[in-house]
Structures are given as C-alpha cells and as structure tokens.
C-alpha cells in the first residue's frame, strides 16, 4: 500500500538514483530529482543542485517544492562520490571532500526537508549508504567513514523526530550493476562476485525496491533501521 507523496531524490539522474526515481514514479509518487548539472532526463523532473553548497540545496528544494506543489514528504539522499586512495597516500582534502558530499551533503538535505516534515507531522527520510560503511574496504577510509556516518544520522533523527511521524532509515547496497562497476577489470569483478554469497551483483532495481518499501505506508513503524541489499556480503555488519 502506497499513498502518493511529494518526493525528492538527490543524484537521481543516473545509476541507482535513476532506478530509485523510476520506481517511485511507478508507485505513484510525484518525484523531482537533483543533479549537479540540472540537465534534462527523460520522464523525470530535474533541478540543479550542488550538494556541497547549502544555498544551492535550499534553492533546489524551493524549486522542487514549486514543481511538486508543496513541501517534500519523502527525501531519498542518494547523491555521493568516491575518491579512493590508500590511507598513507590520502590527503586531508581527499578525505574531507568525500565527507562533505556524502555525509554533510545528506545533512544539508535532511535539515532543509525537516522543516516541512515537522509542520506536516509526516516524513520519510531514506539515506543511501553502502555495505562498505559497516564492512570496511581498503583504500576507502573516506568513503566508508562517510557512509557509516549516515547510520548514526538516521538513528539520531529517529530519536529526535520519531514522535512527529517522521521515519529515517538507511539502505546499504553492496555491489550493483552500474556503469561504474562495469569499468572495473574483469578479474576484479570476478573476485568481488566470489565474496558475495549470492554470487552476483545487484540490479539497480533491487536497491530501488528496498527504498520504495521504506518510503511506503507499510514501513510506517520502521525507523532507525539499516536495510542491506548486498546478496549476503555484509552478514549483519
């Protein structure tokens, strides 16, 4: 069961974000997606947003609310970047720039969305993390730190705003069939598949299904949860 909601998906112009946006549209929601460029995407309303700039986030929400006809009711914070480097070679900027997008960027969006959600006494916040956030990965200290931080964020939001009809949850995908994954050497892909109990990568639509559940009426009593979509790779981490 799904009540149509006004929805914003950050980084929803391609990959996992696009699959999430398409699924939410199919479920009957009104959806706007953000991208850095704001370039058109077939079948979706797109607004430009630089997630590392609070003024840009505010402007994107304002435009999205005009398109949607009211405050955002469902926020999917999906926008993210990687900048992999071994710890001893990782510069401070390598670290902080990834956190500024993946973690602080999500904070900027959640803070902006929360005002309307509190007034309405309803909200669904879904933060897209990664199995790496809890499982760890060499060369990804920055990325893992940013993605694990989303868990603490969701659980703190749950304790702070849970009494206002607002839920905050995390979806933690494992390896997903995307353009980025396809660029990996075949040997590396085979090694990754070998470590996954399901012996395959996820399809973007499988991640989208988990997000759609958390945005639905059926998940009204689910909050502060981490929902892995990783074929068993994380095993409860």
What does this structure look like?
With 237 residues, the protein is an alpha/beta fold. The protein has a single domain, classed as Rossmann fold, CATH 3.40.50.720. 45% of the residues lie in helices and 15% in strands. It contains 8 helices and 7 strands, in the order E-H-E-E-H-E-H-E-H-H-E-H-H-H-E. The chain has helices at residues 15-26, 54-68, 92-120, 132-135, 141-161, 179-182, 186-195, 204-215, and strands at residues 6-9, 30-35, 45-48, 74-77, 123-128, 166-173, 226-229. It has a 7-stranded parallel β-sheet, sandwiched between helices. Helix 1 (15-26) links the parallel strand 1 (6-9) and strand 2 (30-35). The longest helix is centred in the middle third of the chain and has 29 residues, at 92-120. GO terms for molecular function: oxidoreductase activity.
Q: In a nutshell, what does this entry contain?
A:
The protein has 8 helices and 7 strands; from the N terminus they run βαββαβαβααβαααβ.
Uncertain regions: pLDDT < 50 for 5+ in a row?
none
Number of helical stretches of at least 4 residues: 8
Q: What structural class results from the helix and strand content?
A: alpha/beta
In percent, how much strand structure appears in the residues? 15-25%
Helicity, as a percent range = 40-55%
Mean pLDDT, all residues: 95
**CATH superfamily (homologous) name:** NAD(P)-binding Rossmann-like Domain
General form: globular
The H/E string reads EHEEHEHEHHEHHHE
Strand runs, count? 7
**Oligomer, anyone?**
single chain
Rounded to the nearest angstrom, the radius of gyration is 17 Å
Would you identify the CATH architecture?
Answer: 3-Layer(aba) Sandwich
What's the story with the biggest beta sheet?
A: 7 strands, parallel
The CATH topology: Rossmann fold
Sequence of strands across the biggest β-sheet? 3-2-1-4-5-6-7
GO molecular function: oxidoreductase activity
Pfam family, one: adh_short_C2
Organism: Marihabitans asiaticum
Protein name: 3-oxoacyl-[acyl-carrier-protein] reductase
């Amino acid at each position: 069961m799904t009540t149509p909601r006004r929805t914003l998906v950050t980084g929803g112009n391609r990959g996992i974000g696009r699959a999430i946006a398409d699924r939410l549209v199919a479920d009957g929601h009104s959806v706007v997606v953000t991208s850095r460029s704001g370039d058109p995407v077939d079948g979706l309303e797109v607004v430009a947003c630089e997630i590392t700039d609070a003024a840009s986030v505010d402007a994107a929400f304002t435009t999205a609310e005009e398109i949607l006809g009211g405050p955002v009711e469902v926020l999917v914070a999906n926008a993210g970047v990687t900048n992999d480097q071994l710890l001893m070679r990782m510069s401070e900027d390598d670290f902080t720039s990834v956190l500024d997008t993946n973690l602080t960027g999500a904070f900027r969006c959640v803070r902006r969305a929360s005002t309307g959600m509190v007034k309405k006494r309803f909200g669904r916040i879904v933060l897209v993390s990664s199995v790496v956030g809890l499982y760890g990965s060499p060369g990804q200290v920055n990325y893992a730190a940013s993605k694990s931080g989303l868990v603490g964020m969701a659980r703190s939001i749950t304790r702070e705003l849970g009494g206002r009809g607002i839920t905050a949850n995390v979806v933690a995908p494992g390896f997903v069939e995307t353009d980025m994954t396809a660029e990996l050497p075949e040997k590396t892909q085979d090694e990754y598949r070998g470590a996954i109990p399901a012996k395959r990568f996820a399809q973007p639509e499988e991640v989208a299904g988990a997000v759609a559940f958390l945005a639905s009426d059926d998940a009204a009593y689910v909050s502060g949860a981490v929902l892995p979509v990783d074929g068993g790779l994380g095993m409860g981490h």
